[in-house]
Specification:
The complex is a heterodimer of chains A (about 110) and B (about 110).
Chain A: E1 3-5, E2 10-14, E3 19-21, E4 24-26, E5 32-38, E6 45-49, E7 60-61, E8 72-74, E9 83-90, E10 99-100, E11 104-109
Parallel strand pairs in A: 2-11
Antiparallel strand pairs in A: 1-4, 3-8, 5-6, 5-9, 7-8, 9-10, 9-11
Chain B: E1 4-7, E2 10-13, E3 19-25, E4 31-38, E5 42-51, E6 54-57, E7 64-66, E8 76-78, E9 87-94, E10 100-102, E11 106-110
Parallel strand pairs in B: 2-11
Antiparallel strand pairs in B: 1-3, 3-8, 4-5, 4-9, 5-6, 7-8, 9-10, 9-11
The chains are: A mainly beta (about 110), B mainly beta (about 110).
Chain lengths: ~110, ~110
Protein backbone atom coordinates (compact mmCIF):
# COMPACT_ATOMS: atom_id res chain seq x y z
CA UNK A 1 0.00 0.00 0.00
CA UNK A 2 1.08 3.55 -0.64
CA UNK A 3 1.59 5.47 2.54
CA UNK A 4 3.43 8.53 3.79
CA UNK A 5 4.15 8.90 7.50
CA UNK A 6 5.24 12.03 9.29
CA UNK A 7 5.72 10.98 12.90
CA UNK A 8 5.84 14.45 14.44
CA UNK A 9 2.70 16.56 14.61
CA UNK A 10 4.57 19.50 16.07
CA UNK A 11 8.22 20.41 16.06
CA UNK A 12 9.37 23.39 18.06
CA UNK A 13 12.90 24.79 17.80
CA UNK A 14 14.69 28.03 18.57
CA UNK A 15 15.93 30.38 15.88
CA UNK A 16 19.32 29.32 14.60
CA UNK A 17 18.92 25.69 15.66
CA UNK A 18 19.04 22.85 13.13
CA UNK A 19 15.75 21.33 12.14
CA UNK A 20 14.82 17.97 10.67
CA UNK A 21 11.28 17.04 9.68
CA UNK A 22 10.92 13.33 9.26
CA UNK A 23 9.11 11.57 6.43
CA UNK A 24 8.91 7.86 5.78
CA UNK A 25 7.07 6.25 2.92
CA UNK A 26 5.80 2.92 1.75
CA UNK A 27 5.62 2.27 -1.97
CA UNK A 28 6.39 -0.70 -4.17
CA UNK A 29 8.19 0.90 -7.06
CA UNK A 30 10.02 4.14 -7.79
CA UNK A 31 8.15 7.03 -6.21
CA UNK A 32 8.58 10.72 -6.61
CA UNK A 33 8.81 12.52 -3.27
CA UNK A 34 7.87 16.09 -2.52
CA UNK A 35 7.74 18.53 0.34
CA UNK A 36 4.92 21.05 0.36
CA UNK A 37 4.64 23.98 2.76
CA UNK A 38 1.67 25.98 3.97
CA UNK A 39 2.43 29.30 5.62
CA UNK A 40 -0.20 30.95 7.76
CA UNK A 41 -3.13 32.19 5.68
CA UNK A 42 -1.53 31.04 2.45
CA UNK A 43 -2.17 28.16 0.10
CA UNK A 44 -0.01 25.06 -0.08
CA UNK A 45 2.99 25.39 -2.32
CA UNK A 46 5.78 23.16 -3.45
CA UNK A 47 8.96 23.54 -1.43
CA UNK A 48 11.13 20.97 -3.13
CA UNK A 49 11.16 17.61 -4.87
CA UNK A 50 13.71 14.86 -4.73
CA UNK A 51 14.51 14.69 -8.42
CA UNK A 52 15.58 18.32 -8.56
CA UNK A 53 18.20 17.89 -5.79
CA UNK A 54 18.13 21.59 -5.07
CA UNK A 55 18.07 23.67 -1.92
CA UNK A 56 15.09 25.97 -1.45
CA UNK A 57 15.12 28.58 1.33
CA UNK A 58 18.01 26.67 2.88
CA UNK A 59 16.06 23.41 3.04
CA UNK A 60 17.33 20.15 1.57
CA UNK A 61 15.93 16.66 1.46
CA UNK A 62 17.61 13.45 0.39
CA UNK A 63 15.77 10.38 -0.74
CA UNK A 64 17.04 7.30 1.10
CA UNK A 65 15.57 4.31 -0.68
CA UNK A 66 17.09 1.86 1.77
CA UNK A 67 15.36 3.48 4.74
CA UNK A 68 12.40 4.65 2.61
CA UNK A 69 12.81 8.14 4.02
CA UNK A 70 12.79 11.68 2.69
CA UNK A 71 13.61 13.85 5.67
CA UNK A 72 13.63 17.63 5.32
CA UNK A 73 16.57 19.45 6.86
CA UNK A 74 17.77 22.96 7.47
CA UNK A 75 20.95 23.78 9.39
CA UNK A 76 19.76 27.09 10.87
CA UNK A 77 16.04 27.63 11.35
CA UNK A 78 14.51 31.09 10.90
CA UNK A 79 11.29 32.45 12.38
CA UNK A 80 9.81 32.76 8.90
CA UNK A 81 10.15 28.99 8.50
CA UNK A 82 7.24 28.52 10.91
CA UNK A 83 4.58 26.74 8.86
CA UNK A 84 2.86 23.44 8.20
CA UNK A 85 4.98 21.01 6.20
CA UNK A 86 3.62 18.08 4.24
CA UNK A 87 5.56 15.25 2.71
CA UNK A 88 3.92 13.76 -0.37
CA UNK A 89 4.45 10.84 -2.71
CA UNK A 90 3.54 10.30 -6.33
CA UNK A 91 3.90 6.94 -7.96
CA UNK A 92 5.35 6.45 -11.40
CA UNK A 93 2.74 6.43 -14.15
CA UNK A 94 0.10 7.87 -11.81
CA UNK A 95 -0.06 11.27 -13.40
CA UNK A 96 -0.49 13.85 -10.68
CA UNK A 97 -1.98 11.71 -7.92
CA UNK A 98 -0.36 12.69 -4.63
CA UNK A 99 -0.48 10.85 -1.32
CA UNK A 100 0.17 13.15 1.63
CA UNK A 101 1.48 12.58 5.10
CA UNK A 102 -0.26 13.88 8.18
CA UNK A 103 1.78 17.05 8.25
CA UNK A 104 4.23 18.53 10.74
CA UNK A 105 3.78 21.96 12.20
CA UNK A 106 7.13 23.68 12.59
CA UNK A 107 7.34 26.46 15.14
CA UNK A 108 10.54 28.48 15.27
CA UNK A 109 10.83 30.56 18.42
CA UNK A 110 12.89 33.74 18.66
CA UNK B 1 -1.72 34.48 -14.03
CA UNK B 2 -4.50 33.36 -11.67
CA UNK B 3 -3.39 29.73 -11.32
CA UNK B 4 -6.07 27.84 -9.36
CA UNK B 5 -9.16 29.76 -8.28
CA UNK B 6 -11.38 28.19 -5.68
CA UNK B 7 -14.67 29.54 -4.36
CA UNK B 8 -16.13 30.19 -1.86
CA UNK B 9 -13.55 30.80 0.87
CA UNK B 10 -16.00 30.10 3.68
CA UNK B 11 -19.34 28.32 3.84
CA UNK B 12 -21.75 27.24 6.54
CA UNK B 13 -24.32 24.60 5.67
CA UNK B 14 -27.11 22.93 7.55
CA UNK B 15 -27.18 19.17 7.68
CA UNK B 16 -28.84 17.83 4.56
CA UNK B 17 -28.16 20.84 2.36
CA UNK B 18 -26.27 20.50 -0.89
CA UNK B 19 -23.70 22.79 -2.41
CA UNK B 20 -20.99 23.00 -5.05
CA UNK B 21 -17.42 24.09 -4.48
CA UNK B 22 -16.01 25.67 -7.59
CA UNK B 23 -12.48 25.20 -8.90
CA UNK B 24 -10.94 26.62 -12.06
CA UNK B 25 -7.41 26.61 -13.41
CA UNK B 26 -5.87 28.51 -16.29
CA UNK B 27 -2.69 26.47 -16.74
CA UNK B 28 -4.16 23.91 -19.14
CA UNK B 29 -3.32 21.02 -16.82
CA UNK B 30 -4.98 17.72 -17.49
CA UNK B 31 -4.80 16.48 -13.90
CA UNK B 32 -6.97 18.05 -11.21
CA UNK B 33 -7.93 16.85 -7.75
CA UNK B 34 -9.83 17.63 -4.58
CA UNK B 35 -8.50 17.10 -1.07
CA UNK B 36 -9.86 17.60 2.38
CA UNK B 37 -7.62 18.71 5.21
CA UNK B 38 -8.40 17.61 8.73
CA UNK B 39 -6.28 18.04 11.88
CA UNK B 40 -3.88 15.15 12.38
CA UNK B 41 -4.89 13.49 9.11
CA UNK B 42 -3.10 15.56 6.53
CA UNK B 43 -4.66 15.94 3.10
CA UNK B 44 -6.83 13.10 1.89
CA UNK B 45 -7.76 12.69 -1.74
CA UNK B 46 -11.50 12.86 -2.44
CA UNK B 47 -11.74 12.68 -6.24
CA UNK B 48 -9.44 13.33 -9.13
CA UNK B 49 -9.55 13.75 -12.88
CA UNK B 50 -6.95 12.99 -15.53
CA UNK B 51 -8.72 15.02 -18.20
CA UNK B 52 -12.04 16.32 -19.43
CA UNK B 53 -14.71 13.67 -19.14
CA UNK B 54 -12.62 11.41 -16.90
CA UNK B 55 -12.94 11.28 -13.12
CA UNK B 56 -12.11 8.71 -10.46
CA UNK B 57 -12.45 8.21 -6.74
CA UNK B 58 -9.76 8.91 -4.24
CA UNK B 59 -9.39 7.79 -0.65
CA UNK B 60 -12.55 9.40 0.79
CA UNK B 61 -15.14 9.82 -2.00
CA UNK B 62 -18.36 9.07 -0.12
CA UNK B 63 -20.80 11.96 -0.02
CA UNK B 64 -19.11 13.84 -2.86
CA UNK B 65 -19.57 14.00 -6.62
CA UNK B 66 -17.42 15.53 -9.30
CA UNK B 67 -17.58 16.16 -13.02
CA UNK B 68 -15.07 17.45 -15.54
CA UNK B 69 -16.78 18.90 -18.58
CA UNK B 70 -13.86 21.17 -19.49
CA UNK B 71 -10.12 21.16 -18.86
CA UNK B 72 -10.43 24.34 -16.79
CA UNK B 73 -13.20 23.47 -14.32
CA UNK B 74 -13.51 20.74 -11.72
CA UNK B 75 -16.43 21.38 -9.32
CA UNK B 76 -17.01 19.32 -6.19
CA UNK B 77 -20.59 18.68 -5.11
CA UNK B 78 -21.75 17.79 -1.64
CA UNK B 79 -24.99 15.90 -2.12
CA UNK B 80 -26.40 16.01 1.42
CA UNK B 81 -24.07 17.72 3.86
CA UNK B 82 -23.21 15.99 7.12
CA UNK B 83 -21.27 17.29 10.15
CA UNK B 84 -18.49 14.80 9.28
CA UNK B 85 -17.87 16.85 6.15
CA UNK B 86 -16.81 19.86 8.18
CA UNK B 87 -13.29 20.41 6.89
CA UNK B 88 -11.04 22.57 4.77
CA UNK B 89 -11.19 21.64 1.09
CA UNK B 90 -8.41 22.20 -1.41
CA UNK B 91 -8.52 21.95 -5.15
CA UNK B 92 -5.25 21.26 -6.97
CA UNK B 93 -4.09 21.30 -10.54
CA UNK B 94 -0.98 19.28 -11.38
CA UNK B 95 1.36 19.75 -14.27
CA UNK B 96 3.21 16.89 -15.97
CA UNK B 97 6.10 15.93 -13.72
CA UNK B 98 4.10 16.18 -10.56
CA UNK B 99 4.15 19.75 -9.21
CA UNK B 100 0.71 20.57 -7.83
CA UNK B 101 -0.75 24.05 -7.62
CA UNK B 102 -3.38 24.57 -4.96
CA UNK B 103 -6.36 26.81 -4.56
CA UNK B 104 -6.72 28.99 -1.48
CA UNK B 105 -9.03 26.53 0.23
CA UNK B 106 -12.66 26.48 1.34
CA UNK B 107 -13.44 26.28 5.03
CA UNK B 108 -16.74 24.42 5.29
CA UNK B 109 -18.77 24.05 8.46
CA UNK B 110 -21.81 21.78 8.58
CA UNK B 111 -24.13 22.37 11.51
Amino acid sequence: AQRVTQPEKLLSVFKGAPVELKCNYSYSGSPELFWYVQYSRQRLQLLLRHISRESIKGFTADLNKGETSFHLKKPFAQEEDSAMYYCALSGSNQGGKLIFGQGTELSVKP
Amino acid sequence: NAGVTQTPKFQVLKTGQSMTLQCAQDMNHEYMSWYRQDPGMGLRLIHYSVGAGITDQGEVPNGYNVSRSTTEDFPLRLLSAAPSQTSVYFCASTRPGGEAFFGQGTRLTVV
